[in-house]
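Hello Y.,

Per our agreement to keep a running log of every chain we model this quarter, I'm adding this entry. I've kept the format consistent with earlier entries: sequence first, then predicted structure.
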Amino acid sequence: MLNLNSFLSYNARNHPNKIAFIQGDQSITYAELEKQINKVANGLVALGIQPGDKIAVSCPNRFYFPIINYGALKIGAIAVPFSILLKAHEISHQLKHSDSKVYFCYEDTPQLSMGTDGLEGFKSSHSCTHFISIPVDVGNPQHIEGYKNYVNLIEGQSDEFTCYPTTETDTAIILYTSGTTADPKGVEISHSAIVWNARACLSTFRGTVDDIILTALPLFHIFGYSCNMNAAIMGGLTNVLLERFNPVETLKAMYSHKVNILTAVPTMFWQLVHSGRTDETKDLIPSIKKNIRLCAGGAAKVPPQLSKDFQELFGIKIYEGMGISESAGIVSLCDISKEPILGSIGIPIVGTEFKIITTDFLEASPQVIGELCIRGVSVMKGYYKNPEATFANFLEGGWFRTGDLAYMDEHGNYFLVDRIKDLIIRGGRNIYPKEIEEVLMTHPAISMVAVIGIPDQQYGEEVKAFIVLKPHTNLSEHDLSLWARKELSAYKYPRIISFVDSLPLTASGKIAKKELKAREA
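Predicted structure for the entry above:
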């Protein structure tokens, strides 16, 4: 048998009173966590759910998420986490495509209409059998006529359950991609893949039961799911959950809970730097600096200037890595026993191999940019019910094409250049938006930037930069253009500049370039 619940049960037996999760002013121990998971497992069995059935869930970072996820895995069912930002028609599509039989959905909040959209999507799917609402306040659950809620499900259920003997190759989760290039694809991941990746994360982070990790990353995203939730449960860490990312609240939580491991995406690091210099939080920084031992970044390339600004404020360097849904989480990280190499995503984690290929599918030499391919024990089984996409993305020998441009240096360290789909071809010349963004970020008045290619009759594509300025600074388009011409090659500097108050973000906190491109279409 191979199941993440085995590791949770180990910690519930050997560290029963250890705090597993903290949520606001509430906490739950490993022993209590397992009891709640067992109640959900028994409740699902009572509904007639069988091993192999799909259990979908829309839920922010609250205790419910790990409880429902591990409850599904415990009975041998397949967990299907949804983004909490999905609209009704998207929920309906993913419920139907995943063949989900149960849908757990969080109630509406002032920020998001998850419950309303979820129920509408459930009804229009015509395929999912059970809708179960998750209460914002467990003491005052919403009652929807004809449907159960979480409290109803676990009421009267036993807090004991024997884990179903899932095998290594059984599917554990189906995780939908963000759909940046087409309709979202369901990434089918086995039990061996999620267990191996959690183990690799724990080992790479040097995690122990004494560590306290903060999770502001969404748990429905593979970064938060594997590196934060699964790795922490496997290692017996304490996990501080934030329902949504807010830089001030994050700094306060890091201070009050003495957090020593932080994982984040670049936009989060950027906001922490900005907020950490304000009167509201600057007194917290010395204590945060004293406690923090690891900051790991991923999901997008961390601009070098941001890494320098972060280290200047918090006294610690960002260890950059890479992770993708198709490999169950993390695939590389800079070695935390050494100084991180600025701009590098490090080396492949144990059990994972990298290869850079050229356009003619030959292995690239060091320093030569090509497409990054990976293979290893945590790579997905395939895209659920989409053999065409699975075939298109795998090469002979089990190599998965990531769609990322990268290169390896002479020491075996890897560097991301950009996404292939974001490459700008201006007048026949390749331009990498990340390169331009990193240069623009060094301007003293610029806080954040996104660069895209837009259609142009003369050159095919033209370079456009969206600029967010630092507070209390002024910069004209003319002055920035003059500065950029000095810092960038003549064919690279942005001809079109747009000053904006903010940049659109995806549910995982990455800059939503798809939305920026749609505005220019």
